[in-house]
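>> Question from a student workshop board

For tomorrow's exercise we were told to take the sequence and the ligand below, predict the bound structure, and bring the output to class. My setup keeps failing. Could a helper post the expected result so I can at least see what it should look like? The ligand is UFG.
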Amino acid sequence: MKRVLLTGATGYIGSHVAVELVNAGYDVIGVDNFSNSTPAVLGGIGKILGKNIDFMEVDCTDANAFAKVFDRYPDIEAAIHFAAYKAVGESVAQPLKYFRNNLHSFENLVELMVTRGKGANIVFSSSATVYGQPALDELPIVEQQPFQEASSPYARTKQMAEGILKDCVNAYPNLNATVLRYFNPIGAHPSALIGELPNGVPNNLVPFITQTAAGIRECLSVFGNDYNTPDGSCIRDYIYVVDLAKAHVKAVDKMLSEGARWNVYNLGTGKGLSVLELVNAFIRATGVELKFRIAERRPGDVEQYWADPSKANCELGWSADTPIEEVLLSAWRWQQGLKG
Ligand code: UFG
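>> Workshop helper replied:
Here is what the output should look like for this input. Compare the format with yours to find the bug.
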């Protein structure tokens, strides 16, 4: 069995990917420093799989500690790098925290994979945020779309890390890389044993919806209904986290079987959904009442974008087509489990 290293393995996306990789027959070594997750996530992963994954508590910015993972697991052939801070607002207030953590850990990973990995295949967890606000005639977004000025230090770390990776692929002949640009990941594992664990008041829409439905928050604010969209609210491409996780398995499969040196893929459904459409889908799917009101626009929000995922559809043999009601129900079941 081939071994895959997951940094940020107990985070929202990392935990779902760990499950899908093991289900696909890979050995996993997960690392995390629990800066935005808890050891209990390992229990959830273990329950789903019926066995625990190999795991080491490591801060990837600490090169010496990180190297110990390679001492213990000299058979690592591929790595998926999730370990990063991801709060856009916090990144604006504390940019150095973001550059230090998100870039330094990534540089350490690339160096260790190139020098110590049995193979040096890296999948990088990027974001649609690298594109900024596309013009309406540039929708849906294709991978060739040029980057715009980063809208936040968080966005800049994603743009910079992609550039670092490209330079390293050019410099190191044994290094292969795949960049996955996520649109808006939502939902939870169908077992309701792992899911998103927001820190404090959620910034993101779906955790705010489920917490409001559960009575933890009083009322959802829909940020703006005067955008240039059919119902006036912002449009995003919401992708089910389990579908997203499966794309990582396909990316690793492809790298290990074909050794492609550099690939970039958009991971989205290809369909845009407005905030109000998502709210209505949640009510329809769960039958739960949801208090919401129209509020001011949120500064920094992009009006509308969605993916053209056809490159990933064709080259990875993958698509994200879980119905939105099922996805939202999974988020609601996860929320209910947290409450109990
Ligand atoms: N929204 C609300 N009310 C809320 C929260 C969000 O109306 O309480 C709206 C936002 O205004 C936006 C939409 O819901 O129109 C989605 O907002 P999210 O915060 O869930 O997601 P974003 O699209 O703002 O951000 C996400 C990731 C970022 C990433 C960005 C671009 O959270 O990490 O996509 O890829 F940078």
